[in-house]
Structure formats: C-alpha cells, structure tokens
Specification:
four-stranded antiparallel beta sheet; 7% helix; 46% strand
Length: 358
C-alpha cells in the first residue's frame, strides 16, 4: 500500500510537470464592418480612440480630433472629443468636446491629445497628453512640420467624472511632469499614458518619455517609463527603468496599451521600425509577470499595416497606431486603433477603427 501511494504521488508530480500553466495569449483580429470606421470625412481628422461603457448602456469613445485643413496639426490644435454608440463596433456619433481649449496659461491649455479612458471603482478616469505654447501651426495639408515649443511642452494629465457624459474635472497641474534632473529619461517631455489596475488594487502606468541626452531640439532618446500609485489620480512613483527597449534603436516603440489578463500584464505596442519582428512597422504583443520586466510574447505579431474588411477588401495603411484593447467582463472583444491612408497629393486621411477580436 505504501509503495502504491508513492507511485501515485510520483505520477501526479510528473503529470503536473508535463502540463505547465499556459498564460501566453495570441491576439487574433476579425474582419471590420464599414460602420466600425469612425471618420470625420473631409473636414475633421480623427485619431486615437478609447472606449468605456456607461451606466446608460451606451459605449463612449474619447478620441483626438482637429480640423483637416490645418494639416497634421495634432501638436498644436488637437482636442479630445466624445462620441457615443449602441455597440462597441459603432457606428459612433460625435457628441461634444470633452477637453477643449482653456487658455495658454494652463499646462494643457491649447492642446489635449491621445486619450485613454477607464472606469475604476465607480468613477471614470480620462488620461491624456496636454500642452501649451504660442498656438502657431506651421503645418498645412501634405506638409508636416512641428511646433517644437508645443511638442516639448507635452505633459500627462487625468480628468475625472462620475459619468462618461461629464462633467469632467481637470487638474491645474500635470499628473506626470518631467523630471528636474537633466539626465533623467523623462527630462524633456512625457506623453501617451497607459494605465491598468493591478491585482492588489494599486495602479500601473507606462508612459512615453524623451530625455535631453541627444543635443538637438527633438531631444532623445525616446523611451517608455513605468510608474505606480495607490490611487488612479496619483501621486505616481517613477522608476528608473526603461521598457520596450531594443539594442541599436533610440526609438524602437510607441503607443503601448497595457492591461492585466490571465495572471500576466499584456501590452500591444507599435513597433516603429521592425525592432521586434520581421514585419517592419507593425503592432506587436508583449507580456510581463510584474509590469516592469517586459518580454516579447510567444506569438508577437498582432497586425501589419492593413485592415481586412468584411466586404473582402484589404485596406493598406500608412499607419496603424494607438492600439487600445476594449474588454467586457474581463474578456478582450475589440482592438481600437487610429489608422490612416495617404492620397496622391501626400495628404493623410486619418480615422478610428474598431477591430473585432476572435
């Protein structure tokens, strides 16, 4: 009997060793319906949408927009707007401007951009990048030129509301400011926050940062930093640890969207130059046990620069960016992205798209 128990114990141990916990996931994209493209037509450029479901049963999208005749003027004239739909896949209808211009004296007074919205413990939190400056737009359609004052004034903020319809309360101070140390990774600017709640109830943020080590107006290198907080409104503790790095690249990644699923942190990241896969510029998947040490997933490629339409059409894109996972009941059901194509005159036509997940 004793030997039988020993044999059974060994068999159980071997069985457990042969069945490791499978926590790696693969993102599979479905086909896109026409009504899942949210465009401003010939007059308004749309960019970077993020979804949340309200108590009213509607789906609320917060997205960036600016007048198309200004050219690629996001850095000076973007504003965060609000649209609603009965489905996470649209069609969406513009409702109002959520974070409008409020004066150059404010840190986010002239530009609000790249929103990500979350519901935490019954309240809604809209994280975003804002800036201020002289308000001058050097762009025109087909001519991309930065206003470096605005670009380098980028900071991170959060607006809070009891309902996605508002009112939204903004802060007069950034949530994440640049570090005063001129050698810090985020000494020049901070932008593009992504936030998720951790299993212990605290909060993890990954954000884009530019330092001053590169002696040029654009600064550099461009990295991503990690910060944590016990509250969705901070204060956030920064860590001196760059993530999504690649040897030989000063700017390998952008637009990480993070979430926690099946015991791991996940992130969909824009691969800027093919630093992580052979697909070139693409969306790729990273995973992490703790939110600090990120590794490329077993199945990293999420999407090349294209969209498969339900009609059978394959749309080739100039850019596919700002990926954000929308989940219901903990299950990812949609990937919300900004996309654009370029016309024969070199003018970008940008819009938001909600891609179903298989």
């Amino acid at each position: 009997m004793k030997h039988l128990i020993t044999i059974i114990t060994i068999l159980i141990m071997v069985s457990c060793q042969q069945e490791p916990k499978q926590t790696s996931i693969k993102i599979k994209l479905g086909k896109v319906a026409n009504h899942s493209i949210f465009s401003g037509g010939d007059s308004i450029t749309h960019w970077g949408g993020s979804l949340v479901k309200g108590q009213d049963g509607l789906y609320h999208m917060f997205y960036s927009r600016w007048k198309k005749d200004l050219g690629w003027a996001w850095v000076t004239h973007s504003e965060i707007a609000h649209a609603v739909s009965e489905s996470p896949f649209g069609p969406f209808k513009h409702k109002n401007i959520t974070l409008p211009v409020r004066g150059e004296e404010y840190w986010d007074g002239l530009c609000t951009h790249n929103p990500t919205v979350h519901k935490f413990n019954g309240k809604y939190y809209l994280y975003y990048m804002g800036n201020t400056g002289d308000g001058k737009n050097p762009c025109s359609p087909g001519k991309l030129k930065y206003n470096w004052m605005h670009r380098n004034n980028q900071r991170i903020g959060v607006a809070v509301a009891d309902d996605p319809n508002g009112p939204w309360k903004r802060s007069d101070d950034p949530l994440i400011d640049v570090s005063p140390d001129s050698t810090a990774m985020d000494a020049l600017l901070v932008s593009n926050p992504s936030v998720t709640q951790r299993p212990d109830g605290s909060y993890l943020m990954v954000y884009k940062a530019v330092g001053k080590k590169k002696k040029r107006i654009s600064g550099g290198p461009v990295v991503h930093c990690v910060a944590t907080s016990d509250s969705p409104t901070g204060p956030f503790k920064k860590y001196d640890l760059p993530v999504f790095t690649a040897e030989g690249h000063d700017f390998p990644a952008e637009d990480p969207s993070i979430w926690f699923q099946d015991g791991k942190y996940r992130a969909i990241v824009k691969d800027m130059h093919g630093a992580f896969t052979k697909a070139g510029q693409a969306l790729v998947l990273f995973e992490s046990e703790d939110g600090f040490d990120w590794k490329l997933a077993d199945n990293p490629l999420v999407s090349k620069l294209q969209i498969n339409m339900a009609s059978g059409e394959l749309i080739k894109l100039k850019h596919l960016e700002r990926p954000q996972i929308y989940r219901e009941n903990g299950k990812p059901i949609a990937l919300v992205c900004a996309a654009d194509t370029m016309d024969s005159n070199g003018v970008l036509h940008a819009w938001n798209v909600q891609i179903p997940l298989k």
